[in-house]
Structures are given as structure tokens and as C-alpha cells.
Specification:
Order of helices and strands: HHHHHHHHHHHHH
Shape: extended
Number of helices: 13
Helix content: over 70%
Number of domains: 2
Number of strands: 0
Distance between the termini: 76 Å
Largest sheet: none
Structural class: mainly alpha
Strand content: under 5%
């Protein structure tokens, strides 16, 4: 009976081990173990823990492996739980003690914002209008496309809204664009619009956000892996992980931002109908109506005074 139980537990642990083997948490801990063993062999140190494990009875080995699985699972859960804080830190929401650093980073982004907008205006004025942009050379056309698609597009429209990091500016731009286009404050309107989205749209947004959170977690694991430099300087190579993770985070944030914008583009009218408010009469009327809707959601109806308008 006992041997059958141990065999069953061994199979379950094996399945769990396979599932964990592709996670950053597993790579972190097993990588640290490998580097420790390598350090011990190089320096002629003892490998007593490995030898002692081999001498344990089967049930003791299963119990120890179970503890290891629990440690790996718990550490993965902790890092996942910190995902929002990691992401906000990478966006540039830093504590007051880092205010001088935040101001320095923001100043650099403001300078780039000014340079990109100035160049965008120069090329726009030179393009003679129209999609063909006949007044621009091939090189200037490529530069213009890059400005529109990757630079100006993913910076806030207003200089005072600039964040100290590229990731922060991408997500800030995604938050502000529905207000620029439709007068709808995304921070206020998004929770309500989310409830009205069809399941396919919600699933796509959830998957996109999960990719962004997973990359934030990977960024942290790459930083944490540096602790193993106590065993070998080769662990410094893990600094490439947060660099690569941040690069892909920028791409994922753009995708996520585009999906949020698309949700407002396609489904914003459902906010009006669900609240039994009249739809905008025309595109020119929509910005003011969007401001009214935002204030209605934020303040609620005011008796005998209609809607509250933003100043």
C-alpha cells in the first residue's frame, strides 16, 4: 500500500515537475543549484547535500522533492503577485525618494518629445499633403512613417503628461487616446466598457495583458538571477534577460494599447445605450458628449442641474 502511494505521488510530482520546468521560477532555482554544484567542483568543495539525497529512502526523497516543488511554486506565485507593482515601477511610478532620478528621466523624454514633434511638423509641412507625400524624399518618407508609427504615436499628446520611461509613455498614451478622440476618460470609462465587451474581445485583451504581466515577471527573475554571482561571475549574463524582456514588453504594451483603443473605437456607443443616454448626433458632436458621459459616470446625475461638466 505504502509503495503504491509513493509510486502515485512520484508520478504526480513528475507531472508537476514537467509543468514547472518551463517556468522562470524553475530556471532560477535549478540554475542556482547548477552554479553551486559547479562552484563546489571547481573549488574542490564538498557535495554532501547531493550525496545525502541519494542515500535517502524513497518516501524521504518524495517528501523532499515535494518541498522543493512547493518552494518553486510559492516563489512563482509571489513574483506573479508583484506583477502590477513591477509594471508600475517600469512605467515610472517611483517613490518620492527617487524624485530626482524621475525628473532626470522625464527631462530626457521631454527633449525627445520636442525633437520628434518638431521633425514631424517639418516633414508634414514639406509633404504637400495627401497620402503619397510627393514633397518628401524616400528617406524622409521612411523617417515620417517611423515618427508616425513608432515615436509620436506612442508619446502623450501633451508634454505635461510625459512619463519617465518608454513603457510608461506607451501605456499613458493608450489611456489618454480615447479622451483625445472621443472625450471619454479611459480610466473612468474602462471598467464600465469592460462589462459590455463581447467575450472574444475580453479574451483577446486578457491574453494581451497576461503577456505583458508575464514579461514583467521575467524581467524581475532576470534581476534576481544576478544573486548567483556569489558562485560565478558568469551569472552576470542574466542581465540580458531584463533587457530583452523590456524590449518585448514595449511591443506587448503597444499591442495592448491598440486593443484598448480598438475597444473604444468599436464598442463605445454601448456605454451610451446601456446608460440610456442619447448617442452623439455626429462625429463633431461626439467629443462634448463623451465629456458629458465621463462626468456622468464620475459624479452621477445632479438633481435639477443636468450633467456635471469638466472644467
Amino acid at each position: 500500500m505504502t509503495s503504491k502511494l509513493i509510486e502515485t505521488l512520484g508520478e504526480k510530482l513528475g507531472e508537476q515537475w514537467i509543468a514547472l520546468s518551463v517556468t522562470p521560477a524553475f530556471i532560477f532555482w535549478t540554475g542556482g543549484l547548477f552554479l553551486w554544484i559547479q562552484n563546489q567542483i571547481t573549488n574542490g568543495g564538498p557535495l554532501e547535500p547531493v550525496e545525502q539525497f541519494a542515500q535517502l529512502a524513497a518516501h524521504e526523497q518524495v517528501a523532499l522533492v515535494l518541498c522543493i516543488v512547493l518552494v518553486i511554486t510559492a516563489s512563482a506565485a509571489i513574483v506573479k503577485g508583484l506583477g502590477l507593482f513591477i509594471l508600475r515601477g517600469l512605467e515610472g511610478y517611483w517613490p518620492g525618494i527617487l524624485r530626482s532620478l524621475e525628473n532626470a528621466f522625464r527631462s530626457r523624454k521631454e527633449k525627445r518629445w520636442e525633437e520628434w514633434h518638431k521633425r514631424y511638423q517639418e516633414l508634414s509641412g514639406k509633404s504637400n499633403g495627401g497620402q503619397l507625400r510627393s514633397g518628401l524624399t524616400d528617406a524622409e518618407n521612411d523617417e515620417y512613417d517611423q515618427l508616425v508609427q513608432d515615436k509620436v504615436r506612442w508619446m502623450p499628446a501633451k508634454k505635461e503628461q510625459i512619463m519617465p520611461t518608454f513603457l510608461g509613455n506607451i501605456l499613458r498614451t493608450a489611456e489618454r487616446r480615447p479622451e483625445v478622440k472621443y472625450g471619454l476618460d479611459a480610466i473612468i470609462c474602462w471598467p464600465r466598457l469592460w462589462l459590455l465587451l463581447p467575450s472574444d474581445a475580453r479574451n483577446e485583451l486578457i491574453a494581451s495583458r497576461e503577456r505583458l504581466d508575464a514579461l514583467a515577471g521575467l524581467w524581475l527573475w532576470g534581476i534576481l538571477f544576478l544573486v548567483w554571482t556569489i558562485y560565478t561571475p558568469w551569472a552576470l549574463l542574466s542581465v540580458l534577460i531584463p533587457i530583452i524582456a523590456y524590449y518585448y514588453m514595449l511591443q506587448s504594451a503597444k499591442r495592448y494599447g491598440e486593443l484598448i483603443e480598438a475597444a473604444f473605437d468599436v464598442y463605445r456607443t454601448s456605454l451610451y445605450t446601456s446608460l440610456r443616454l442619447p448617442l452623439p448626433n455626429n462625429p463633431g458632436d461626439e467629443f462634448e458628449k463623451g465629456q458629458q458621459l465621463t462626468n456622468y459616470l464620475w459624479y452621477g446625475p445632479v438633481q435639477d442641474a443636468g450633467l456635471v461638466y469638466k472644467s
